[in-house]
Design brief:
By secondary structure, the chain is an all-alpha fold. It has nine helices and no strands. It has one domain. The protein starts with a helix and ends with a helix.
Length: about 210
Amino acid sequence: MLQFIWKTINCYLDQKWFIFVLFMINLLGSIYGFYWYQEQLLETPSKWLVFVPDSPMASSFFTLFLIVYFFKKKAPLIEAFASITLFKYGIWATAVILWGAWTIEPSVKSIFMVQTITWVDLMLMISHLGMAFQAILFFKKYSYGFLSIFLVGIWIFANDFIDYTKDMHPWLPKSISSIDYIIGEYSLYLSGFTLILFYFLSIYRRKNV
């Protein structure tokens, strides 16, 4: 059953209309993402600007990857940066929103009955989970290996360092803004997990080509 579902999905990934739809969704989402960060960007020193809008940067690179993929070209470093950052920040944002809701009212019911989650939070979670899902969805289409993953790893760990030592991380929900050092640890662990995940996916891909 799972094999059938995966084959069906792969058929869509080879359809140009489907790639174009994803391209438009990611392009518009990236534009909106930078707009979402406008207030924080206006308060950020110019030398740190690149470290603030993590999610729209990731989706922008994935938009670029979709252009490359549409024309059946390979760009390993773009593929690696797009997929790894898209997954990491998709999961990071979703978890942080749920974390903030849990801190307000620490119960499973408060989260799943949407008592402490607004419609904006819900929209952000759906869009960010979609980001993470896209990154995995195309994993058989990537062409990168260890070197590209290593280079992206340098970037995301440097980004984590700047975010949580220079206070350049995306603004957190008020309920957890005072524990940004713990969020920083979570971000580091998530970076490591993401790099390991995509390394093993790259091995699986090469063995099953």
